[in-house]
Amino acid sequence: WGQEVIALVALRRATKRADSDLEAHCRQHLAGYKTPRSFVLVDQVVRQPSGKVDYQWAQRLVEGESNRQQR
């Protein structure tokens, strides 16, 4: 359908993690087709007043990342 799974990750500690480390961790807990193909590190995940993730924010962030990578 033209979409892929991308994970937004807010690390608890200021550590440098490779995508391969994050992917290996996900593969332990998720089926292979559910494992994110890429990861975007963020300082904080933005939430709505109800406490749910703000998916519109996440989509804009990821679209902005993909536009920068295409340049």
At a glance:
The chain has helices at 19-29, 55-70, and strands spanning 6-9, 38-41. The protein is α+β, with helices and mostly antiparallel strands. The mean pLDDT is 85.
Walk me through this protein's architecture:
With 71 residues, the chain is of the alpha+beta class. 38% of the residues lie in helices and 11% in strands. The chain has 2 helices and 2 strands, in the order βαβα. The chain has helices at residues 19-29, 55-70; strands spanning 6-9, 38-41. Strands 1-2 form a two-stranded parallel sheet. It starts with 5 loop residues before the first strand and ends with a helix.
How are the SSEs ordered, and which strands pair?
Layout (H helix, E strand, L loop, with lengths): L5 E4 L9 H11 L8 E4 L13 H16 L1
Parallel strand pairs: 1-2
